[in-house]
Design brief:
The N and C termini lie far apart (50 Å). The chain is of the alpha/beta class. The protein is 28% helix and 17% strand. A hairpin with a 5-residue loop joins β8 and β9. It has a domain at 7-222 and 311-335: Rossmann fold, CATH 3.40.50. The chain has helices at residues 37-51, 86-96, 108-114, 116-124, 170-176, 190-202, 224-227, 232-235, 288-294, 313-326, 331-335; strands at 58-62, 77-80, 101-107, 129-135, 181-186, 207-212, 236-238, 246-247, 253-258, 262-267, 300-307.
């Protein structure tokens, strides 16, 4: 019997198209009122039917933290794992069952502290995972300690005089790890969040999405200085592949390079825009531009930074297994290979 030839794989006959409701579990959603997790959960449930993947072929894996309750609320297969190890478990699931679509839900604490090493290696291997990192710049589940992404000087229960650590940049880490899809979205910008999640869901390879979200209890206004509805148009730059980088009211501000490497904001006349504005290229094989954009703070870019294709980990493993099976087995050659030697009397 083939490894994949068992009853678990047998799907029911095609029925009515799935809806958002089909992906909601019967569990009561338990997050604090006002938490950004609600919006992200709703957005994921809304976009999944359009991906065309049956619930029986969908898996959500999480670690530890507020965001990690996610699998309970999805009417799919799920695994609430241990602190920071979700990418590793998800990688194993995908390699054992390449036919499954595997999502990872993690947070800035779970994914970038104890789980940082696991996250890096899942991305560099191009494991075919869709990794959603909820970033509220705080430890919420453990009641308000500073996290790896908390801003310098942040006063919290564990840093009453202000943090003396510089924050980690999740996108910079993902790009340095050679993730093949890297994006950023905001929990309150629902249409654009859904667009980004859909693109990540359709990507073949390591897809990493940082989602800026609010923690209403322990870090209210987490991203208001750039992502608040009142200032978002002026403080954030929406990236669109192949288009010049414009933002602000009626696109009256743009981004170009100063001295060849430094981004600078310039005023733009929509009727006669400068010819030297930066044009976004998410498909570039070398992520030089994506790295530069990941370091920008104001305007803060959001959208798809990188979207390229490479062989995935599970594809390469399947090819190696097939190649090994195609060769006749020679146990003696294996036992007496190049690592053996003869000891003279």
């Amino acid at each position: 019997m083939d490894d994949h030839d068992h009853n678990f794989d047998t799907l029911p006959a095609a029925g009515p198209a799935l809806t958002m409701k089909d992906f909601k579990s019967d569990q009561m959603v338990r997050w604090c009122p006002g938490c950004g997790d609600f919006a992200i959960l709703s957005s994921v449930q809304k976009i999944l039917p359009a991906l065309g993947v049956p619930r029986e072929k969908t898996v959500f894996v999480s670690g530890i933290g507020c965001s990690s309750r996610f699998p309970y609320y999805m009417n799919t297969y799920g695994f609430h794992s241990i602190h920071g190890r979700a990418p590793t478990l998800a990688t194993a699931i995908k390699c054992a069952r390449p036919d499954l679509q595997v999502w990872v839900v993690t947070g800035d604490g779970d994914g970038l502290s104890i789980g940082g090493n696991h996250l890096i290696h899942a991305l560099r291997k191009n494991a075919d995972l869709k990794i959603l990192l909820f970033n509220n710049r705080i430890y919420g589940l453990t009641k308000g300690q500073y996290s790896p992404t908390s801003e310098f000087g942040k006063k919290t229960k564990s840093s009453p005089m202000g943090t003396i650590d510089e924050p980690l940049n999740p996108l910079a880490i993902a790009l340095a790890s050679e993730a093949t899809f890297v994006a950023r979205a905001v929990d309150t910008d629902l249409p654009f969040l859904g667009e980004i999640l859909t693109k990540a869901g359709k990507h073949k390879g390591s897809a990493f999405v940082e989602i800026l979200q609010n923690c209403a209890v322990f870090n209210d206004g987490s991203w208001d200085e750039v992502a608040g509805k009142a200032v978002r148009d002026e403080k954030m730059l929406r990236l669109e592949h192949g288009k010049p980088m414009l933002f602000g009211k009626e696109g009256r501000q743009g981004v170009r390079l100063k001295n060849g490497f430094e981004p600078e904001v310039v005023a733009v006349d929509p009727a006669n825009p400068p010819k030297d504005l930066l044009v976004h290229d998410a498909k570039a094989k070398t992520p030089t531009l994506a790295h530069l954009l990941a370091q920008m703070h104001e305007p803060m870019p959001h959208g798809v930074f990188r979207d390229v294709s490479k062989p995935t980990l599970d594809q390469l493993m399947e090819e190696q297994i097939a190649a090994a099976k195609s060769k006749p087995a020679d146990l003696q050659a294996l036992l007496r290979g190049a690592e053996t030697w003869t000891v003279a009397a």
